[in-house]
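Submission sheet (multi-component)
Chains listed below:
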Amino acid sequence: MIYHVRHTSQVTYGTPVDLARFAIRLKPAPWRGQALLDYRMEVAPAPSRIVEGFGPFHVNSTLVSIDEPLEELTVTSEFRVELSPVAVPADDGMTVAETRAEALRVGELGDFAPAPYLFGSRIVALEPEIGRWAEPILDSGAGVLAAVKALCVEIHRAFAYEPGVTASDTPPIEAFRARHGVCQDFAHVMIAALRAHGIPAAYVSGYLRTEPPPGQPKLIGADAMHAWVNAWCGPAIGWVAIDPTNDRLADEDYVTVGMGRDYADIAPVDGVFVGSPVHEVATAVDVTPEGEDRGQGATAAA
Amino acid sequence: MSTEGAIADVDLFGLDPNASPLALYAPDRSRGDIYADAPAAVARKWDSFARAISASSGIEDYLRRHVEDLGLGYRLTGDEQERPWPLNPMPVIIGADEWQRLEDGLIQRAELLERVIADIYGPQRLVTDGHLPAPVVTGSRDFTRKMVGVPPPAGRYLHVYGVDLARGPTGEWRVLADRVRLSFGIGYALENRIALSRGTGSLLPSIGARRLADFFDAMRRGIASTCAREDPRIALLTPGRFNQAYPEQAHLARYLGFALVEGRDLLVQDSKLFVRTIAGLKRVDALWRWINARNLDPLAFDSRSEIGVPDLFSAWADGGLVTANWPGAGVIEARAMSAFLPRLAEVLFGEPLMLPNLSTWWCGQEWERDYVAANLDTLMVSSAFREPVEGLEDGRTRPGSGFTGAAREALLQAMARRPMDYTGQEVIRIGTTPCWTGAHFEPRGFTIRTFLARDEDGRWRMMPGGLARLSQAGELRTPLMGEGDLSADVCVVDEVPGANVAQAHTPSSPAIRRAAKILPSQAADNLFWLGRYSERAQMTARVVRALLSASSMQSAQQVSETVPDRLARLLARWGVIETAEGTPEELAAAALGDVERCGSLAGMVDNVRQIARLLRDRLFADSWRVINRPMPGFLPLDSDSMADAAERVMERFATLSGITAESMSRTAAWRFLDMGVRLERASLSLQATLEMVPGSASADDLTSLLDLFDCHYLYRNRYLAIPFIAPALDMVLLDPDQPRGLAFQVQQLADHIAALPTLRANGMPEPPMRAVRQIAARIAALDAEELDHDALEELLEQVLALSDAIAKRYFLQREPQAGRADKPSIQ
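Outcome: structure written.
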């Protein structure tokens, strides 16, 4: 399946910003089962400097400087991507305890190694409270793949999807205690729970198709950028992409942009804007299978 | 080491009838004591130092004064005010042999750390080959992923290496912690030595203590020689004055001749780092950073950082910026890392570690975790990466035996869930050193922090000394100084006189230079405001005194009743008091003492201290001492007491002006300080005139005005009559020979601006110059008879416009204007 993705973010500032230097992380990073066919990014007003880069986690990062006073910033990211199904390996019977031990043993530091995703990160601090809550599910003797799926079910069941009650830097413990939030909070809570038990877990962001295939319900998160979780299930199975917001494995309907320890590592836009706080952000995302009619683009204001 | 022999020597010495005060010193010998274990030749040096200390009365007070002079202070987390630095007069004296063994071991260790860091940020072979588990690297918050594959200039990840050491019962030394992120303590070690040598005269040379200066010199050469440019500019990057270590950083910058800068002083352009100065952007070749890696660049690392420099990363990746130490080096500080260093030494060097660190077991490995769990009672339990973890919520090390019952169960369960977060460490008994209590010597447990730095050839040199921490509790904890701790100097002495290796290296005289130091825009800004506030404070004190004296004269019917009213209105205009309603005494009390109002004299005195703090590296100790005094106390509503307080403030600022005028070198820094004074004085003279002479004025009003500007006697001599408006105003505002008058200030301002660097190549005057010339021309053309209200207001507006022009041209033009709560608007 080939998807056409168009993402526009419009940031309005209260008063003009003197100096804007920021990173844009919207170009999909290389990903299994996903081929980027073309890519275009547009920044208005035109930046004085653009430097393409990658990392420090698995994400493309474009460094942009705008020297003239800035009142409104528009970033448009548009691309076509071909997705092919990736089989989830069968459960190999690996337990939580075995996975934990294996994760400590893998002698790699790369983007897909387990070690970088084992510890607390900027937004996802280690929270024993979340760990205790997940204890019955992530029992040491439980099979890890089943446990990860069960955790996904539990979060989906126990948490209310409520836009507007949390922000991009809300610590997972707050969303956890209130049992509500958006896709980002669901993902952060799940990551915190897995790491509390020594299971490497990463934050993945990307897109879902805007309109569901005929006869299927529209997925939550299709109107904006979406976020889900990559859980490491041992050296054989590796990373399993799973979406606690919609309680399902992230399959070929999920377009991946990047992966980091939490939102902060792969935030779509962040940086230094001297002079004024952000006044308003408007985001429009449109993900259409190629050949189908382009929708009008859903609009969400954060 | 021949401990046996050493003990015998000391015992014999102890029987000497002319015994030193240390003869009665009775440490617990099973713990190990550095004096009791010392070889005879070194013990004699202890004795002579101890004799001198116990013979001199009040050495503590003397030292305390030197410590104050140095502006030495420290804060524990949560402290608002700095605490005085507790320096014990008795140094820890270590013989050259013992020190040499430490030095050999630590140089080996520094090389090892460098190699490990270079591998982690380079080929990562230690991890892929299985010598170093990946989580030991990724568990550290200082592992800076973005720096992988970004090698430092000359391949030097480390320039400065700090290490904490403890001496055990048998005299063996152990490494407690490695410090490569930030060099906390290095300045205190230096300042302790300066204070001690000032406080004890020739005592240190007499025992042959090696000097520290060569070490700092070598460190500076080491950083400089790594830079691409011949005469590099090195800056010390501070998190700012709210940082606990700010006094240390300011002193070091001053001592080493580095520019003290904050993130907002710096700017990256085309991968090169620049400092904003009054003469435009100046290239910076090297940074000694006192900011954690993750806060150094909000673009590359944590975007929430407000103390970093956006895009500094590109200066490392492409700009050849030398940085001590390279961002990410801190990854080797983790306790988990110490568990692997002995093995890594074998792997990388094929030899064992000469100097052991605390034996450490990282629980991320199964065997180690089982060992720690099984031996919990005899081990210390610590957080592997110094983060708060379950069971160790404060991140501090605790004895395993302290976990009992449910707490132990919970700890073991947490260790099963996340074993990689824990390390077990051996329990060591730390040895003691003699500590002077004021009456006698007592044994105190001690640890030492010392430093190594690379010289220009890249070789490691060790500071011949360090900072000793004498602990009250005998506990080992991470902060530099804990509650109740004392510090002491560490002296390395040569046992054989004349074998002082420090003298083998004769430093050559530096090339003579004058005022080569740059003036960052922010420092210029602060100097200017220090000048303005000092002057405003001094003038406020004058008005308060005048108000009190007018009030007492008025009650004796000796002065027109308009005088106190007008003086009060002047104070209200300046924001010193809220309202001019009330008796003069009530108003004076509010003007002096209402700390809530930042415009009050107390508020201003405090403000001056705050700004002076930012300039600690530029002010003389004498100036600093004058400024650092709190507002004098007074009895509210008691005229005499209040007048006395006002007078003391006046005297204090007069002293400060005197020091500035007589001792401050005529650099741009002095010009900005003086410009602040002049500009404030110009503005105040106009405001005072507007309030004291609102159209009409009695002779008393005019006398009071002349008094405020020290012109009264001159007026009487010149005119031999009571004051009239035009001649009085001429004297205060237009006469260019009155050093407190407006015309004189404007002339001085013009001279300063003319002497400052210009950014224009075409010879055209910059806006401040044009603004000051306009005022000067206006004053020159004015006749005192024309000085009505409108003319005064117009002049005042011009003076304030000049202030703005100066700020716009020379100071930082970023948002600090809005966020600068410490500089409320005064006009």
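Remark: The domain at 2-84+267-301 of chain A is CATH 2.60.40.2250 (Immunoglobulin-like).
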